[in-house]
UniProtKB/TrEMBL annotation:
Protein name, entry field: ABC transporter permease
Origin species: Streptomyces caeruleatus
Compartments, record wording: Cell membrane
Membrane topology (UniProt): Multi-pass membrane protein
UniProtKB keywords: Amino-acid transport, Cell membrane, Membrane, Transmembrane, Transmembrane helix, Transport
Length: 277
């Protein structure tokens, strides 16, 4: 009888998977909040405010930080992006070419310029090119040098992105175009590449964000006061005022551009995933 009563008693169950996940999330939230509180308590906010949040110094930066520094940063970025996109398209088509030397040259270019730091490319453009070709000037002065340096770096990454986009277009599209009397070149330009760009638009926008930040390397080319971009502008004022507030303001100006661009990228990626579904 006692054995029967034991068997009839309900067995104690442990936590379900959902309960375990909820408990795990709760513990993570508690740890996260605890770390934030510890950081807030330990930090010396008065010293930070004195070094990075001087309102009078920040006001001195306007409107030049927008009309000069941010404007130059955008110009450098857009010009480098255009050069990189054009050069990247050429290299991508060379990678897909049936001619062996073209594929080899494109592969060597991509490996070299993806492997070298962007800083070395800027130094090469600013120092090595004038030494190798005395008396020659890159068109556009500093703007032309920055466009070329950023374009050379961006082209290596864009070429692989464009190549992947072209290969992602169904082969039937080329076959259909050929059946309609299109030449291979015309079919590529009119049919394949437009479809590829719809696929690769999000990663290309990401590359634009990266170029926007890499434009800070322009200081290694030696720029005038009127050619300074955000980082150079902020560093110069920080040195003059012996305060880091200009660097913080310059960083916020970067975020004014990169955060909206990041939002655009996420929206495009979401739309692309919806289209696939």
């Amino acid at each position: 009888m006692a054995d029967t009563d034991v068997r009839l008693q309900p067995k104690k169950k442990g936590l379900t998977r959902r309960q375990k996940r909820s408990l795990s999330r709760g513990v993570q939230y508690v740890v996260f909040v605890a770390v934030l509180i510890a950081f807030a308590v330990a930090a010396d906010w008065d010293r930070l405010a004195n070094q990075f949040a001087q309102g009078d110094i920040a006001r001195q930066m306007f409107p030049d930080v927008i009309t000069l520094a941010l404007k130059n940063t955008v110009l450098y970025t857009v010009s480098g992006f255009v050069v990189g996109l054009v050069l990247g398209m050429v290299i991508a088509l060379m990678r897909l070419s049936s001619v062996g030397p073209y594929r080899w040259l494109a592969g060597v270019y991509i490996e070299i310029f993806r492997g070298l730091p962007a800083l070395l490319i800027f130094i090469f453009i600013g120092v090595a090119v004038p030494l190798a070709f005395p008396g020659t000037e890159i068109p556009g002065g500093t703007y032309g040098k920055v466009a070329l340096a950023l374009g050379l770096v961006a082209a290596a990454y864009m070429a692989e992105t464009i190549r992947a986009g072209i290969q992602a277009v169904p082969k039937g599209q080329m076959e259909a175009a050929r059946s309609l009397g299109f030449s291979p070149a015309r079919a590529m330009v009119s049919i394949i590449i437009p479809q590829a760009f719809r696929i690769i638009l999000p990663p290309l926008t990401n590359e634009l964000v990266l170029l926007f930040k890499d434009s800070s390397l322009v200081l290694f080319l030696g720029v005038t006061l009127e050619e300074r971009e955000l980082s150079k502008f902020g560093r110069d004022l920080a040195s003059q005022t012996a305060n880091s507030t200009p660097i913080l303001v310059a960083g916020l100006c970067y975020l004014l551009v990169t955060i909206p661009l990041g939002f655009v990228v996420r929206r495009m990626e979401a739309k692309a995933q919806e289209a696939v579904k």
